[in-house]
Amino acid sequence: MLGRDDSLARGWEVRLTPGCGLALPAFHGESSRCRARGVVSGDLSTITGARTVADEADKLGRFDAVIHNADIGYREGRAETEPGVPTVFAVNVLAPYILTALIERPKRLLYVSSGMHTRCAPAYGRPALDQALLERLLGLAESKLCDVLLAFAIARRWRVKSNALEPGWVATKMGGPSAPDDLHQGCVTQASLATSEDVLTQSSRGYFYHQRPRAPNPIADDLRTQEQLLAECRRIRGIALD
Questions:
Q1: Which residues constitute the domain of residue 160?
Q2: 223-232 confidence digits (pLDDT tens)
């Protein structure tokens, strides 16, 4: 979980959930060093794996806040771990949907998106770029738009604080070493939205960048598109949100 050091410094208990492809033993060391209260491991690229994560998370008790920040990007190429479901959609969209639906409802939900989502639309124009790379970029951007749609749909349906944010283009494995944004600010924003009692962080159905509100893609506010996404996730995994 990004921002765990900030949350621990404020006296919050943190549970670590490794994302797709991260090994549990590495997180045991981090858990000990950071004084985290628990570790849940699972493969978020499969429906069964995401269900396992949800079941194990519930054994730790009800959470005050859950940050959905596990994702993969365009560098991995197109693959399917579930028949007919691209892995980028399975990890970036379907897994947060499954975890949201199955984990006992927390007080706050955060969905990590990307600034790429603002350039995405159903009829997105395709300039003259390498087609395979372009399809992967569009797949990532569309998945990040879906994360905002999911956050806003939950805020509308449930009595919880549900928001989305973008950490910026930061120097992670996915972002690459030359990414210019401040990695710490992305972490601080997540920790603040998860723990702070400031007026700004008490909002719901918001989109944030570096602790400030930012306008999301207007499509994210479209109720019909939100419901279409929920219906597609429900069709794939067979369980509806309450």
A1: 4-237
A2: 999 998 899 8
Residue 210 located in a structural domain: yes
Q: How many domains does the chain have?
A: 1
State the Cα–Cα distance between residues 13 and 19, nearest whole angstrom: 19
Confidence of residue 177 (pLDDT cuts 50, 70, 90): low
For 30, phi then psi, to 5°, come to -65, -40
Domain contains 242:
no
Distance CA 101, CA 118 (A): 26
Q: Are strands 212-213 and 85-86 parallel, antiparallel or unpaired?
A: unpaired
- Separation between Cα atoms, residue 199 and residue 96, nearest integer Å: 26
pTM of the model: 0.79
User: CA-CA distances (angstroms) from residue 76 to 21, 87, 173, 232?
Assistant: 12, 9, 11, 24
Write out pLDDT tens, residues 113-150.
Answer: 988 888 776 433 333 334 444 445 457 888 899 999 99
The residues with which 110 forms a beta bridge, in sequence order, are 67, 163
Q: Is residue 91 a contact partner of residue 20, using CB atoms and an 8 Å limit?
A: yes
Give me the CATH number covering residue 147: 3.40.50.720
